[in-house]
Amino acid sequence: MAFFIFQLRIYKTGLLQIYTVWQLFINHTVICYDNLLLLQLNIKKENGERKMDVAIIKYNAGNIYSVNYALKRLGVSPVITADPEVLSKADKVIFPGVGEAQTTMAHLQEHKLDAVIKDLKQPVLGICLGMQLMCRHSEEGDAECLGIFDTEVKRFIPHRHEDKVPHMGWNTITQVKDGLFTAQLENKFVYFVHSYYVPVNEYTAATTNYILPFSASLHKDNFYATQFHPEKSGSVGEVILRNFLKL
Questions:
Q1: pTM, 2 dp
Q2: pLDDT of 17-33, one tens digit each?
Q3: Could you confirm whether 231 is annotated as catalytic?
Q4: 226 and 120 in a common domain
């Protein structure tokens, strides 16, 4: 009887070991299969949802890295470049800037970036000086600019003691149009720093009033521009940048 019980225990132990090995095999197979499916899904995702390429034009102007950080907060990793081929192949291009018009235009022309920017076919966003350089002419340094928008850039002339130049701080945008803006952005505050302005014209996509009404944003074909700094305009600026990335 004792011998039979001993054999039964050995038999049960053997079955348990076989069962354990079998379970390990099944679990390992399931894990491998799940990993294979995950790998296939990732491959399909990469093939079906290609990562967006966003390029920031690198030139002798400030504020480039503020725009870079703002985009990274939105989950986008842009490349900062002056390479014409990289710029032409990007899905979106951003033309930021804080500086002086005449000096900056001379730099763009020296490096042949003026022709590159005008020939871009994808959505392009000019910010602050970038917007002004997209115009035909600027009173700042009597600069001949890119001419994408057939309009002038003029200097603010104070009319009252309280009219300070530069226009610096928060102000509202009104009469917003489709593209970068939605109706919910009407009368929202954004951040400005500028001494020159673009008068309201046929390309105006949003308006702000400081000393006089002026263009807070411009739009023509694939070219979009803001006089204000969306990268410094908090949650409203994030919405505007997201809208640009969705174009």
A1: 0.80
A2: 444 444 434 344 333 33
A3: yes
A4: yes
